[in-house]
Amino acid sequence: MAEAYNMFWMMILSTVIGHCVAATLSSEQHVDENTILDLAEKSNKTFLKLIGLAIQNMRCDFDRCGQWSQWTGDMLYRGQFGVKTRSRDCWPESCNKTGPKVVENDNAIYEGNCPGSYNVTDGKLCIAYYTDKMNHSAAKQLCQKDGGNLITIDTKERYELAQKLFTSDNLLVQGTRRVAGGPFFDDSGNLLEDSPFFKWRTGQPNEGASVSLVVVFRGTEHYDASEGGKFSVLCEVRK
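^ thats the sequence. predicted structure below, dont judge the formating
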């Protein structure tokens, strides 16, 4: 994206001021309004300075706010509708995001996606618990059939739910590794150890194992296990 952005401005410069001046810029150089203003000063071209100032003003108009927060709203069943909200900080009188700020809010109507056979917990999680124990492959297929996945314990709500339900039983959760001694990743490729709610039991994982391993959870800690082992399953459909 950055390379395309730079090439765009170099094409504009070549068109407006000629190839001789634009050629002084490298295609790998970051090109923005400051680059153009600096070039205008060196080449003593008034029209080029006007272009730089115009771009500066445009950027200021479109860059007075921070990033939007995550959407908030209850988990709903399919066929139900609700209103979700998000917010961001804006600085109406500053291009540098300093000084007095205001909060800008945004609302949108959304449709729920929790299957009717699942349970919604306190409006937050959409889950289904299966008592029949199964291996990792069968469990993934079961969850994906409903548009969900094996649960990942990556938030306080999910950790407390798993802790409450599985004090003496092993729960199969997201997490696999294919290299002996290697790290464990969830289905999206995120490193499990990066989550503040991921905690190995003492002595885990089995670093010397040469076979693929999966992750299970019981009580408060995570364990490794053989991929062919059978465990309880908790599926989740996320918003």
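The longest helix spans residues 46-62.
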